[in-house]
Amino acid sequence: MDSLTQLALGAAVAATVMGKTPGSRLKTVLTGAVLGTLPDLDVVIDYGDVVSNMVLHRTESHAVFYQTLVSPVLAWLAALLCQQRQYYWRWLLATWLILLTHTAIDAMTVYGTQFGLPFTNTPFAVGSIFIIDPLYTLPLLLGLGYYLLSKPRGLAVNGGALVVSSAYMLWSVAAQQHVSNVAQHSLYQQQLDYQQMLVTPAPLTTLLWRIVVITEQGYAEGFYSLLDTTPEISFTHVIRDHSLKQQYAGLKPVQQLHWFSRGFYTVQQQGDTLLLTDLRMGQEGSYAFEFVVDLQNNAPVHQLPMRRDMTVALPWLWQRMWGQQLPSPYLPVNQ
Q1: 289 with 272: CB under 8 angstroms?
Q2: pLDDT, tens digit, for every residue of 294-310?
Q3: By C-alpha distance, which of 186, 21, 2, 192 is closest to 93?
Q4: Residue-level pLDDT at 333
Q5: DSSP state of 206
Q6: Is 81 left (phi over 0), alpha (psi -120 to 50) or beta?
Q7: What is the pTM of this model?
Q8: At 325, phi and psi to the nearest 5?
Q9: Are 271 and 223 in contact (CB under 8 A)?
Q10: What share of the chain is helix, strand, coil (3-state, %, to 5)?
Q11: How far is CA 135 from CA 113, 204, 205, 279, in A?
């Protein structure tokens, strides 16, 4: 999830665990916020190339085993900073829960979180919530604000906000399952054979969902809103030569993307270069992770900037979310 959400969640967990202890509420909240953002500092690590930096984000710093090992030290620092050394064990519980919940909500996105290290490097990804979702974050911020104002029921309101956010996360899983069922039925009705299917929410909402299926000819993309009046999903088909995946399977970037995306990627050859695209994040014509591999000169792999046009994308998102049938805001890639 985004930094603001992780900050708010860490602060809310700290307030819940430490709320009944004497001391500064502000210090407790700020310490929880810092602890909540610590795991994402792994973004400053350079693993040697842009693809490795992508697939090795959310690794050791997000692994429950290593978080458990480092929690006693971080808890001691937190108790020291908040002048609550007599409450070390409570800070230890708070610290461990903050790190654990950080990892838990990251794993709910589609990116991939390797929380099982060192026992397994599987990138777990439920994919039921977008990396930024105001309906998850706002209750946490409101609860924290009430708590910091020292209202009589501040602690209860903060705890209630955690319950509301957690319930929304559960709702996202239920909505994802519902959309998956709708998509499977629609694909069956259209007699469209597919090998894999991915269902993820559109940006900022769990009302609109994106469906990607891998087919023998390439892949197809469709959108479905929970407010659509028909369960039929219109798919945009993109032709891709899957044999390129086998032809260049020995290349490290291809191997990494194949593993990390769990098969939801494409390979295009453009002269002496390969274009590698992670199909999970973004949408056709605007992907977050696209990489160019130079086959001729062994130049470093570089990442293409994401194509963004918020003046077009946001109005489309708003209208399509409410059930209005609209084509994608980005033109399909030329086949």
Answers
A1: no
A2: 988 888 999 999 988 88
A3: 21
A4: 41
A5: S
A6: alpha
A7: 0.93
A8: -75, 115
A9: no
A10: 50, 15, 35
A11: 22, 8, 8, 25
For residue 151, what pLDDT is reported?
A: 79
- Predicted confidence at residue 335, as pLDDT, reads 41
Tell me the two tokens of residue 224: 């479905």
Token pair recorded at residue 255? 């191997």
At position 65, the amino acid (one-letter code) is: F
Beta strands in the chain (DSSP E): 196-201, 208-214, 218-225, 235-239, 265-270, 273-278, 282-283, 286-287, 290-294, 302-303
* Cα distance between residue 249 and residue 256, in whole Å: 10
Residue environment code for 196-233, b if the CB has 16+ CB neighbours within 10 A, otherwise e: eebbbbbbbbbbbbbbbbbbeeebbbbbbbeebeeeeb
pLDDT value of position 112: 96
Selection from 202, 333, 197, 206 nearest residue 275 by Cα: 333
Q: Are 290 and 276 in contact (CB under 8 A)?
A: yes
Q: Which among 291, 253, 294, 242 has a CA at the least distance from the CA of 273?
A: 294
Quick one: residue 306, left, alpha or beta (phi over 0 = left, psi -120 to 50 = alpha)? beta
* Nearest partner of 290 among 302, 273, 298, judged by Cα: 302
Q: What is the pLDDT of residue 331?
A: 59
Distances (CA, A) of 171 to 20, 97, 189, 320: 30, 22, 27, 20
Mean pLDDT by groups of 10 residues along the chain of 335 residues = 96 95 94 97 94 96 98 98 96 98 98 97 97 97 93 91 97 98 96 95 97 95 95 93 92 96 94 94 94 89 89 92 89 47
Alpha carbon of residue 321 to chain centroid: 20
Instruction: Note whether 109 and 130 are within 8 A (CB).
Output: yes
How far is it, in rounded angstroms, from Cα 33 to Cα 134?
Answer: 18
Listed as own residue / partner, the contacts of 147-153 with beta carbons closer than 8 Å and 24 or more positions apart are 147/15, 147/19, 147/25, 147/29, 148/25, 148/26, 148/29, 150/25
Please report the pLDDT score of residue 21 as a whole number.
Answer: 92
